[in-house]
Specification:
Elements lengths: L3 E7 L6 H12 L8 E4 L2 E2 L2 E3 L5 E3 H9 L7 H4 L2 E2 L4 H7 L3 H18 L5 E5 L14 H8 L2 E6 L4 H16 L4 E9 L4 H7 L2 H7 L8 E7 L9 H7 L4 E3 L14 E3 L17 E6 L3 H14 L3 E7 L8 H10 L3 E3 L4 H13 L8 H14 L2 H7 L3
Keywords: Glutamine amidotransferase
Subunit structure: Homohexamer.
InterPro entries: P-loop_NTPase (IPR027417), Ser_kin/Pase_Hpr-like_N_sf (IPR028979)
Length: about 375
Amino acid sequence: MAPKIIYVTGFRQHAGKTITSLGLLWLLQKKFSPSELGYIKPVGQELITLEDGSKIDKDAIVVKEFSGISDMDLHTVSPVRLGSGFTKNFLDSENKAEQTKELTDKILRSVKKLEDKKVIVAEGTGHPGVGAIVGLSNANVARLTGAEVIFLSGGGLGKALDMLEVDLHYFMSKGVNVKGVIFNKIIPNKIEQIKHYITEDLLNTRFPFFYNPLRILGFLPIEESLSRPSMQLLANKLDSAIVIGNPNEPQWNIPCGKMIIITQDKEHLIPQRYMTEKALYLISAGSGDRINLIIEAHKKENIPIGGFIITCGDTTQLEDKTLTILENNSVPAIYVTADTATIRERIEDVYENPKLQTSDIIKLQKIQNLFEQYFYWDKFCDIMSL
């Protein structure tokens, strides 16, 4: 008997597909042993290089680390990689049809290697049309693999329905049946309102073209800690970053809290006015006295610090006393050459578009709790005939 393939796709990049894949794999282990479960990322965009020089999608590494599936073969689960320059090379190719067939065959071979599994979670990439240029959009791949599609919608009311208007029609046009919708990243105090207005009756009135009625599989609140980076991630994301301290210590993998930019001089700086738990401070080099003041204020209130990003390294040398203060207090810190405004923009982008890392073990428990509490597991099992 062929395995059931559940294809997780969404309205855009960073919609929560990897988190949902992990949540499903966690819950599926209530019914199946890990050896009976599989995972595949048919088309990948964000690639990393393995020790043998081969490239695979980054999400495959994260899922292997956290899913509990010990026999996961990374080369099998990431068959097609659309890295930088791929689209241009494809458009320049004189054998586009042949190249599409080759990529399609790679996906089918990977699925074939997982035929001993009972359930496979397939994770889509980007928005529904990503990969369409080579005939491998999320809808194309779902149809190719005969998968059951679960669609991740954004939160909100009008915005969610407007996006579904476009995205679900796209799947319909490709002859792909969408079985369920998850509304994700909802402001917690808006959940009841969203549930009141967005019902299965409303969805099936607006989108009556699927051969099974659309089912709602959950209204998931935004979990702030899942959308916040650790100092470990920031160190990897910021160019020419110099790490201060030991990045292998646990506090480097704790999600940071609110980002706070320090511009006041020491005489006017009152940290208690904006002090928050695990705050991430942006402050220029040469600010040892202010850094010490902030650390002491946090220690007095027993509120942990997320870390410091020390900027302006190209114009101001890091003082020895600043280095000593940070090391003596074991506070994660990163020293960068760029100015504060530039670094702020880069960090805001990371906050807006975080990606799970293999070091994010703290986030794994939050993902499991999120799906235990808000995902409609029994309904999911029913519509998937599990």
